[in-house]
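Collaboration report, partner site 2.

Our partner group contributed sequences for two proteins of shared interest, and the home lab folded both. The records are reproduced in the order in which they were received, starting with the first partner submission.
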Amino acid sequence: MKSFAIATVLMALALSLGGCISAPIPLTPQTEQRLLAQAPVRFLLTFDDGPSASGYNNPSRSVVADLAKNPLLPGIKAVFFVQTEASRAGGSPRGRKTMEREHAAGHILAFHTATAFHTNHRWLNDAELESTLTQGAADIASITGAPPLLVRPPFWNYDKRTFAAYQRHGMHVLLTDLSANDGKIWGFNGSPRRRANLYRQLSVVRERIALGELPTVEGVIPVVVTFHDINRYTARHLQEYLQILMDSARINGVKTAVEPFYTDHATLERAALARTVKEVDEPVHLPGVWNWVWDADSH
């Protein structure tokens, strides 16, 4: 089963990162009319797998700088799902210092892994899972003063056992609505279809918004977006990605809030918690092929 899971993850990565991208779902008059009754959206930015431990042109620090200063909305706050013990991430002195900078800048530090590698939590035995959650929570609390409230399971994957473990540690699972599909770190490092990808994904999310399936939180609908801050391509193009999100909303007929991104830590945290998975059996909508991958893995 584990070898099959590894194979499906690798296949999913190949498909999601390099596969064909369908055209956006056409905007029908009925959907357009339904959208008028919905609140505007605000993009809730999240970053996985960091912080970078690089001493050269550190991509995580570049991301933080561009969130602070950009043409669209200076002072954007984001959620960073960190790998607290990985040697190429938070397990290094530079990585820990970067997490401290992220926290000081008003961003949220959330849990991703506390293993040496990007390990699926389902592959850990009970003792290993308990250890990694305890260690990760302590790592983050040592910087922020409090254990993390948010967790993003590696590869978006969880089951009843891991979900219950997250709950015991006071962590809530936050998945995503949109994915930049930018998880390519080695080899070819680019995203030539980045616009088409986000245009298409937001058209799918737009249909759910029109049906009232996404919650309104403090007058806006939080739409969760996932990037990878250890990806140098993402770091170099983050300001472009912000504009692509705005263009995607316009092309798909989705109205955005006056402030289209979050700029306040507490407001961001409340919105993120509102979008978390409440029950382990709750149906989830992951972008791309990920729902299919984990449905296949469970059979």
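Second partner submission, folded after the first:
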Amino acid sequence: MTPDFLNPDELEVALRQIGAERYHILHPFHRLLHDGKLNRGQVQAWALNRYYYQAAIPAKDSWLMARLVSSELRREWRRRIEDHDGNIGPDGKFQGSGIERWLKLAEGVGLEREAVIRADQILPETRFAVDAYVHFVRDRSVLEAVASSLTELFSPKIISERVSGMLAHYDWISPETLAYFTPRLTQAPQDSDFALAYVKQHADTVEKQQAVLGALRFKCDVLWSQLDGLYFAYVAPGMIPPGCFVPAPERTPEATSA
């Protein structure tokens, strides 16, 4: 059965429905993370693997920016790259970046900075999913590449839940550790507003609309599969692949007092 053509508002409803059904806020690993049910080593595994995704964002955005046909569009996408890679201010000093703030998060949960950057102990699921996302943005249409970023429509909710939950349940995590998420509460809506308007304007055939819906499903799968890897390696049944990060044994109260 051939799908119906959707008007722009109907297309937005369909996109938001994908998020309601597939966004990784629903994943069991995130439920454990936000509800304080993970130990320090499991949180470290999340921070380590998530860094590989964070570091890839400006790379995939650079691929897309190179394919944009106007200065206006390139300026918009360059801002995203600067959000993650940082920028040099008028005084010649580095103004900070999302990647740097994530490294501070990783250090705050007890990881070594250089080990995180090397990414030689991340899960294969993380590497395959993130690399597939970069290749998708590089190889598919500009419209699909833009649509794949629309998971940002749903990120303010997960950020608010993550920050409040982690601060409430992990006494070894401070607001400074989670400082990465503060600017994302304004950056993500700004990014998604632009991307959504672009998709609604340019998805002007049934084929293009189905392509953008597929792109958002793909991106949700990218995020979900990363958490699958974390869950099965570090939660249940706990099968850590060879060469991947192995958390230090949890110290018992008896061992601590001894």
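Feedback sent to the partner group on the second submission included the following. The first helix runs from residue 8 to 22. The chain has twelve helices and no strands.
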